[in-house]
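Entry:
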Amino acid sequence: MTTTRGGSPWADLPEEILDAIGSRVGRPVDVITFRSVCYSWRSAVLTPDFDQLIPPVEVRLPYPGDIDGFLIPSTMCCVEFQPPIPNDDSIDGDAPPQADGGWLIKIEESSRGKLQLLNPISNLKLHSSPIQLSLLDFRAVQLCTSFRLRYQIGFPAFEINKVLPFPPAASAASPPPQQSTITVIAIFHEGRIGYWRKGDQHWTYLDSRNFDYDDIILHRGRYHVIDRLGKLSLIDSSLRFEKSYSPPQFLHDGSGGGGQKNLVDSGGDLYLVDRYLDGRRRNSKDVDDAITNSFNPIRYLVGTGRNRNWNPRAVDFKVYKLDEEMSEWVEVKSLGDDDTVFVLTTECCFSAPAAQIAGGRKDCIYYSDDDDYVARTMLTTDGIRMFQLEDGSIQEVKSLPRESDIFLPPGFSVEF
């Protein structure tokens, strides 16, 4: 009988079942996570061909860029160290140091299928040390798939706040959607929501009246979008709004609550994270003024992205859970029954099991204040913060001994 770390029974699955599963695994990152389960799974699927050219998916970027860019998929993972089986001669090199919990990283594929490891919040590249990294020493648990748009010369598309492929099935596709059928939906210019189909010269607004959208997420196979006042709407297969949920009860006075809202899918439930800020965020009118009045609008927007007045700091958070039967938001004081943490990034917001990550502190929200345009792509690890629901405290992750390396596996360094 095959033995795995911990004696897991799935190592003894019949070969024909492993072959059937393996044949449905397409993307290199999926192959790697499949192969990292155990030895029998590793032998069932060949190593990805990292020299095979993967044609990039071209997408027209919104004005003022108004040029072609690329849609880049990535995967947020929890990477856990697994001690090798004693007396196993198949493992070469020095084993990485064992840690109390795993790390949260982002895995992104290049145009040739090669994998890059990044900090999921800052997008800074991670470089490994001389430690020999074996796929059998690490277990990569996929948490979510995210996407971003990039200019063809390599720079991020600054005017895009969030982007997802359409229809919903494309967001979970493996491999990603093909060039001939690509449609993307995005929040851009700090509040507009629109879409672009292959062959379109320009983007089309889904809503020509409300330019204050904050976040969009795929939840239970459907896209949900929320605006700055807390109104939640669903988007149907025809790219039209079909249903709306009212804001949380205390927001009915029109105040809008906090200044920034994010959606998180956790355990099949939908959560609203409302971030209270100490200043004003950039809005769509600011972008319009920049485009109209500046000789170089992109440079203007990039420069003002570092302006303190338009890069406010979070001072508090409130979290709500959607009761879909009652069609209402309910404020919660914990992030579910499974000891969960939330991670808020520009490209996606996701949950992770606290017990599996370094530190293991539950009911926390990891985030950065520096997420305005280019500032979000030039973060240092010093800019990552942790909010605790229990006492409302906010601390820099670097100052916390147990959590300081949650986004930086041992033996890795950050490339600036």
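The helical segments are 15-22, 28-35, 39-44, 168-171, 284-293, 297-304.
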